[in-house]
Amino acid sequence: MAIKTMSKITDPITGTKKVKATRLYDTEKVVHTKDDAKEINDALSEHNKDWGINRITGKPRKSSPEGYKVSSNCESCKPRGHNIRDPKFVEDKKHIDPVGLYKIYTDMGPIETCYKEIFAEALEEYNAKQTRKSRRIDNYLTHVLQDQRRGTMKKNSKVDNSRKPCYEIIFEIGNRDHQIDRNLSIEILEKFCTEWMPQHYPNLKAVGVYLHADEFTIDPVTNKRIDSAPHIHFDFIPIAHRLTAEEKEDFENWKKELKEKEKAECKALGKKFSSEEFEGRDWAFERAKKYGKAELNSLSLQSSLSGACAEMGYRTQGINTAQMQVQKDIRNDFLDLVESYGIPVDRTVNANAEAKVRIEVYKAREDNKKILKQIKETEKEVKSALKELKKKEAEIEKRETAVKGLEVEKKDVDKREKEVKKREEKIAPYVERIDTLIEDEKKLQEDKEELNEEREAQNQKEKSLIEKESKIESDKKALEETKAEIDTSMKNLHDYEESLETKETALDTREEELNERSKALDDEKAAVEADKKQNLEDKETNDKNAKEIYDKFESFGPLEEKYKKYLSTVNSNEQIKVNVEDIGRQLKTELMEPNDSWRDKIDYAVANFTERCQKILTKVQDAVRGFKNFLQGKTSEDFRKMADDMDRNGTKTFEEYQHKWSGDMLDWQVEQRKQKLQLKAHRREIDIER
Predict the structure, then answer these.
(1) How buried is 550 (Cβ within 10 angstroms: 0-12 exposed, 13-18 middle, 19+ buried)?
(2) Is residue 423 included in any domain, yes or no?
(3) How far apart are CA 457 and CA 451, in angstroms?
(4) Which span out of 75-79, 132-136, 153-157, 467-471 was modeled with the highest average pLDDT?
């Protein structure tokens, strides 16, 4: 079965590389091992599979073994000094031409400057809303670098999958030994990085786009300079957006409704609903699909690779992460653009790498076989020549025995001996080549043994990976048990919260009762004010009646003198009361007349007069008590406070103020009653709870 081999071969004798033809493969060599032929055929058949539709031309994608490979490797950012060709970084780099071509399409400056320019407004808005100082972010770049979150796909302890502030994709067409026209390559690279990437991958914010066409290597065999293929460093920061408060509330409600709906569907189908699977969904992708924003917390604009992928429509599916899908689509888009220029491309991803290594080995082996065949043919010629020489020598011996003196035959023998020596000299290089070929065969055998050892090591690695995966499964089960315990704790906490809500409802009920009691007190206060108004009206009526009685009693001189004497000799509350009662009895005695109607009138007048005197007595008592409580021992500052209190309670005269004070109707007295009632109610609630 014929196989295809690389166009560049290494001469097994001289060690130099030769270019056989412009095409990539030929079919001159033959492989005799069935397993080797199968591996190579599998690698070559990879090109014939369905690659989909070209997004630029709309035609089916193609892959050719003679096509050009493209590179679109994504990794953390290189130092900016290397990309902008800072002399401090590149002056000691021997593979960079100091006068070579390089170009800067975009450069936002150092990473610190980029973060300030992109996230400053969102950071200021976030910090303004934080009430706790510990939750504020002083430097967002430092916050990202110190983030302890790590990816879930980590299987190699040597791989750093921590959160990166910036990423870089290096785009390249071909390689050092197989590249297209340099000007065309630069045109395609520039168009893809400055036009296609910002339009189709908007969440990958470009902070630096740098073209490098100034790198080269020195061939170790020919010692000639070989220019590397032009390439572009595309530095970007992945950005994502956070939901607003209204969108967040709407999303939580939608999520609850979806959960209830799926619970009902599972119940109808007789299946068990798994809350863990429901909560474990890629909700960032769902948020991005519904609102165009993937993040739930933190800044309104933030650095997040997973969030950026979700907002661009990518979600993790098993081991095929969203980032891997983005990288694959970017590579296919890059291949589509190169293919749209009529350039053949090789879309396979290292599928035939091992086969190509084997092809080199087979090629060297077949070349060695050809040389061995030539050497064997030469050996046959030497052997035939030696056999002929022996025959000639036998003939010479016979001739020497027969004719020892023949000079002519002797010269002929000498001539033949010289020819034999020449042939021996001619054979000597081939003998050396045979030794070299034997050593090469040994090296090939050693290479084969090394290949077997590498396979054995690979098998050991795969076994180790299987063990790690089993360990991850056990860790996952332990994590699920821990999560179940957390769910139980959360349920207990929820029950406690419900009991707190019940108590809070009871407190609200008691607060309403207190408000009703306060309202009743306000009603009592209004009733007191109404009584006050009624008392004033009664006072006016009594004053009017007293005036009429006084007018009728002007002729009674003794009564007037006694009344004046009473007014001037009041000393104590009890004495005033006795005097008033004496006045009433004396009036009844002096006014006793046989005329019933007149006597009735006098009785009524005396009764009214007695009532009026009692009111006067009450006023005098209030005045004395007011003097003792409000006037005796008071300073000017106390009187100012009292005046303010009178203004606040709407009392114009001291009598009104003293009347309100004695009836506990002042605003601060009413407030004290309310507080006492509230305190009493609170104590009653505590007793009930106990």
Answers:
(1) middle
(2) no
(3) 10
(4) 132-136
- Round to whole Å and give the CA distance between 660 and 162: 77
68-106 per-residue burial string, b: 16 or more CB within 10 A, e: under 16:
bbbebebeebbebebbbbeeebbeeeeebbeeeebeeee
Q: How many domains does the chain have?
A: 2
154: tokens are: 């980590």
pLDDT range class, residue 565, cuts 50, 70, 90: very low
Distance separating alpha carbons of residues 26 and 7, to the nearest angstrom: 7
The alpha carbons of the chain give a radius of gyration, in whole angstroms, of 56
Tokens of 361: 């080995």
- Which pLDDT score, from 0 to 100, does residue 94 have? 86
Residues in the chain: 690
Is residue 3 scored above 60 in pLDDT? Answer: no
β-sheet bridge partners, residue 96: 215
Which residue type is seen at 378?
Answer: T
CB 311, CB 257: distance < 8 Å: no
Q: pLDDT confidence of 356, banded at 50, 70, 90?
A: very low
Q: How confident is the model at residue 530 (pLDDT cuts 50, 70, 90)?
A: confident
Q: Tell me, what DSSP letter sits at residue 653?
A: S
What is the DSSP code string of 278-342?
HHTS-HHHHHHHHHS--B-SS-SEEE-HHHHHHHTT---BTTB-HHHHHHHHHHHHHHHHHHHTT
Contact assessment for residue 165 and residue 141, using Cβ atoms and an 8 Å cutoff: yes
* Cβ 384 vs Cβ 25: under 8 Å: no
Least confident of 15-19, 65-69, 294-298, 499-503: 15-19
545 vs 569, residue with greater confidence: 545
Global pTM exceeds 0.70? no
In sequence order, which residues have a C-beta less than 8 Å from that of residue 558 and are 6 or more positions away?
Answer: 590
DSSP reduced 3-state for 468 = helix
Look at residue 558 and give its three-state secondary structure.
helix
115: domain CATH number is 3.30.930
pLDDT at 55 over 90: no
Q: Provide the domain limits for residue 641.
A: 522-689
- Give kind and range of the element (H or E) at residue 253: helix 245-269
How far is residue 347's CA from residue 61's CA, in Å, rounded to a whole number?
Answer: 9
* Structure letter (DSSP) for residue 65: T
Task: Report pLDDT for 588.
Answer: 55
Which of 203, 209, 210, 344 has the alpha carbon at shortest distance from 284?
A: 203
List Cα–Cα distances, 362 to 219, 373, 444, 449, in angstroms.
24, 16, 10, 15
Residue 586 covered by a domain: yes
Q: Rounded distance, CA 104 to CA 418, Å? A: 74
Q: Are 541 and 608 in contact (CB under 8 A)?
A: no
State residue 202's pLDDT score.
Answer: 93
Residues in CB range of 207: below 8 A, 6 or more apart: 106, 107, 108, 111, 114, 166, 235, 236, 237
Closest alpha carbon to 62 in 285, 339, 405: 339
Task: State phi, psi for 269 to the nearest 5 degrees.
Answer: -90, -5
Residue 149 pLDDT greater than 80, yes or no = no
Which residues, in sequence order, are bridge partners of residue 26? 5
The least confident of 149-153, 202-206, 335-339, 651-655 is 149-153
CA distance 559 to 542: 20
Count other C-beta atoms under 10 Å from residue 365's C-beta: 16
Domain assignment present for residue 556? The answer is: yes
411-460 residue pLDDT tens: 777 777 777 777 777 777 776 777 777 877 777 778 778 878 877 887 88
The CA–CA distances, whole Å, from 58 to 55, 102, 629, 670 equal: 6, 33, 104, 88
Would you state the structure tokens that stand for residue 512, as one six-digit string? 């309403």
Q: Is 64 inside any structural domain?
A: no
